[in-house]
Amino acid sequence: MCALRVLMLEDRAEDAELLALALHRDGIECEWTRVQTRSEFLSGLREGPDIVLSDYSLPGFNALEALAIVTETRVETPVIVVTGAMSEETCVESLRHGASDYLLKDRLARLGPAVKQAMADQKLRISRREAEQASERLGATLRGVVNNSPSAIFVKDREGRYLIANRRLEEMLGLPADSATGLRDRDLLPAPIADALAALDGDCIAANRPRQHEEEFGDGADRRSYLSVRYPISGDGEATDAIGGIYTDITAMKRIENDIRVARAELRNQAAHLEQDNLDLRELDHVKAEFLQSVSHELRTPLSIINGTVEMMLEGDFGQLSTEERELVATVEKAGDRLDTTIIDLLTVFQMDRGGFAVNLRPTQLSDIIARATHAVGPMLDNAGIRAEIDIPQELPSVSVDGDQITRVLINLVTNAIKFSPSDTTITISAHPHSSEVVVAVRDAGAGIPKAEQSQIFLRFHRGSAAVRESMQGAGLGLAISKEIVERQRGWIDLESDEHRGTTVSFGLPLDVDRSIEHRGEVRIPLSGGPPGPSDGANQTIRQPDDPAANTAEGGRP
Amino acid sequence: MTRVLVVDDDPGIVALVSYKLGRSGFEVDSVGDGQAAVDFVATQTPDLMMLDIMMPGLSGLEVLERLRASETTAKLPVIMLTAMAQESDVERGFELGADDYIIKPFSPRELLGRVNAVLARSAR
To answer: What residues pair up with A363 in beta bridges, in sequence order?
Structure first.
């Protein structure tokens, strides 16, 4: 154990010796220093003694002054006043000035215990102070936590008085800083707000468990939304002593939530509009379909009468015609046929746009298609004085196509070739397999098509300069429809023309056409046709079921 | 003599068909609407009926349905005549028991051929 460092304020050296001896007797080893003036005492005190033993009265100095110095310098060294003679007043005075104890020099037997007691008291005092400081620090930390929190925090007692109200809470409630503590909501806020808060607090206390709400505070643009959590606080874990609450600002979140809600509503609105547009379009489509039927009926019934009557005239049903009459009636027949072709082409384009143009793929022999087409255009070839040459290999692989539609394309191409060929020339119809496709070509020895026009040739309603120049009739739909038909069957169509050597129109059809491309038409309207009729004469015509183009070659010629 | 009843609301078509068939040796009667056709077969027995589909009042399809429902006309050969050419109508016609169909504009020669073919089939 370390020696106790003792500072003695004593003017008599032998008394100091006696004190040291008394301590020694009580088993207290000490290092002691004796001082007797104010300045010596001050410097001794600076050495940091464990205890001061002070004589009450010295020449020029005394214990009360020494005690005052100890108090002033905030040194916590215990001071025991030791005196030769002491009145009760001086004792009381000494204790009042901060002395730990006092004793008389003739009772030095008490010195040891008194020192021990003073030291113990001192130790206790220090540890108590340290505990207080720690508690203070903790309190400051907690206050910091509460005051600096971005959340509004409160604690109220059962009567609703604020025990804690942090700065955020006061801001939220629109109160001045440090104004809430000790008061109730009804002392601070307008009655409706105070009542609402009291109701929420009461609800939490009654339930005795945490409660969560969404609340709003502030006015106008400053109005903000909060998520509040209230929880009961109980010291003994049973009865609620107080209520705590934490408010989290969720204004931004609510704004986003609201934006999302608005966006959703807009989307729903747009969807409704789209649905209405769809209904309108379906209605329009329905009107178009009705128009289609109406056109079909209103134009083709009178046409039926005209063409039928003309046919009967040419066949001599009304008596034999003179050559002149026959030529005139034949002109009417051609006009009727052309009108029918134009109506069919227009209706076809209409149907293609409506998605009602069905494609029926079946394995088909191209040689059959070529035979059907050349047969159909036979009379036209004869009339124009043009020869047709067929160039196909012995064996042609079959293709999966819509035979009626491809026949229509081929008739179309040959009809065009006839129109633009001078008489006494040859049109060549060929079909040859190439790697994965069969290429069909119609070549004429006509005037050819100027380069500048070639890119336009497959456009709807395009009429070539030659057609215009020669006053040839036609709506300019044949090639556009042909292109569309071929492409719907995964094929291609192309044109090669030289202004002096003639024109070749080719189309390719894949050998392995996938059957899944069959178009799902909503309404399929065959424009003309019916099962092939019985042949009753040399001027046989072929009508393909659902194949309006077969009518191009309609009508017998003399 | 073979009797054909032509049912069509268009007088031009009636005249054309009547003339062509008449010249080919048929006895031709005609009516202008569906109800008249039903009334006609109640008292008379034609050998074949040319029946337009799109007519005001009773449509051709409705007439056909009644013909097939009645014992006396269940087997009467019927050729539908239509400009409409809606596939569903043609299909419906065959379902109801039509023997053939012709779509306008048609060739009178072809029409005659169809009539002869249907009559030959029904005679077997």
So the answer is: A400
Tell me the C-alpha distance between A216 and A361, whole Å.
Answer: 70
| Number of helices followed by number of strands (H, E) in chain B | 5, 5
Query: Which residue is it, tokens 């009429």?
Result: A463
A-B CB pairs within 8 A amount to 100
A476 backbone φψ class: left, alpha, beta (φ>0; ψ -120 to 50)? left
Q: Report ipTM (2 d.p.).
A: 0.82
- The CATH number that applies at residue B99 is 3.40.50.2300
Residues 6+ apart with CB under 8 A from A463: A474, A476
Give the distance from residue A546's alpha carbon to the nearest chain B alpha carbon, in angstroms. Answer: 9
Interface of B with A in 63-102 (CB under 8 A): 83-88, 90, 100-102
Q: Is residue B54 within 8 angstroms of chain A, CB to CB?
A: yes
Compute CA B119 distance to the chain's CA centroid, rounded to the nearest angstrom.
Answer: 12
The number of angstroms, rounded, from the C-alpha of A235 to the middle of its chain's C-alpha atoms is 49
Taking only the tens of pLDDT, chain A with its 558 residues reads 568 899 999 988 888 898 888 888 888 888 999 998 999 999 998 888 999 999 888 888 888 888 898 888 877 889 999 888 777 888 888 888 888 888 888 888 888 888 999 889 888 988 998 999 999 999 899 888 888 888 999 999 988 999 999 999 999 999 998 899 999 999 999 999 999 999 999 999 888 889 999 999 988 888 899 999 999 988 766 667 899 999 999 999 988 999 999 999 999 999 999 999 998 888 887 787 777 767 767 788 888 899 999 999 998 888 888 999 998 998 898 888 888 888 888 778 777 776 667 788 888 888 899 999 999 898 889 888 999 999 999 888 888 888 888 999 999 999 889 988 888 899 999 999 988 889 999 999 888 888 888 878 888 777 766 666 655 656 678 888 899 999 988 899 999 888 878 899 999 998 864 433 333 333 333 333 333 333 333 333 333 334 444 333 333 333
CA dist., res. A442 & res. A506, Å (int): 6
Burial zone of A334 (CB within 10 Å; 0-12 exposed, 13-18 middle, 19+ buried): middle
Q: Note the pTM of the prediction, 2 decimals.
A: 0.48
Rounded distance between C-alpha atoms, residue B82 and residue A529, angstroms: 11
Closest residue on chain B to A533 (Cα): B110
B13 closest CB neighbour out of A304, A528, A537: A304
Asked if residue A409 lies in contact with residue A551, where contact means CB atoms within 8 angstroms, the answer is no
The encoded tokens of residue A438 equal: 């069969």
Considering its fold, how many domains does chain B have in total?
1
B56 to chain A, closest Cα gap in Å: 13
A526 touches chain B (CB under 8 A): yes
**Domain carrying residue B61:** 3-123
**Torsion angles phi and psi, residue A315, rounded to 5:** -85, 0
CA dihedral over B87, B93, B97, B99, signed as positive or negative: negative
**Residues of A (314-343) whose Cβ lies below 8 Å from B:** 315, 317, 336, 340
| Domains parsed from chain A with CATH numbers | 4-128 (3.40.50.2300), 149-249 (3.30.450.20), 276-354 (1.10.287), 362-554 (3.30.565.10)
Inter-chain CB proximity B104 and A555 less than 8 Å: no
